[in-house]
Predict the structure of ABC transporter.
Amino acid sequence: MTFIECSDLSFSYENKTVLSKVNFSVEKADYICILGENGSGKSTLVKGLLNLKRPSNGKIVFSKGIKSNEIGYLSQQKSMLKDFPASVFEVVLSGRLSSMGIRPFYTKKDKAIANKNIEKLGISHLKKKSFVELSGGQQQRVLLARGLCGTEKLLILDEPVTGLDPLVTLELYDLIKMINETEKMTIIMVTHDAREAIKHASHILHLANKQLFFGTTEEYKKTRMAEEFLGGGKVD
């Protein structure tokens, strides 16, 4: 099932094009990693997929299988929560806001979904702790649980491992892969870590202010582009 179809997309800021000629589709249970250097248009594309920025050309079509408010999101920035006096449970539960519509309160179903995702991410023992007192790795698990509360279909992650130590980074990658495989959750992840992307992703989208490549990871591994992006190292 196709969730999203992107056709001839371009994005601009102040009439300056920052990303162009983007064509790809997102299917159920895909794990797509978006690669590219800083300033290549990765985060701009994510804003487009989240309906936070309109394309200057082309279109993004959501199928009947998913709505724009059924997308979970883990932002690159945690600064908005840095000094927010909330418990882990409250942060995770806030992921239900996009599903509430005009309801002014959380339901038992909302709270059950929050508890389910807290358990799934292995953070039940942190449930009553203050979010700001957690380590970076623990905070990312909490925010990942929060993102899952907004969706059962598609999760978008923008540089989810930035600033984490190597061991915690590997644990988070394993968690994301587990969610993709066991939940059949479609994943779109922006990352600079091309080697880990190649290990885990089913598809690669490579940007450099335009689309350079979209296809399966196995196809990408055979390209000179992949070798150059990995600094000339072996593509495993």
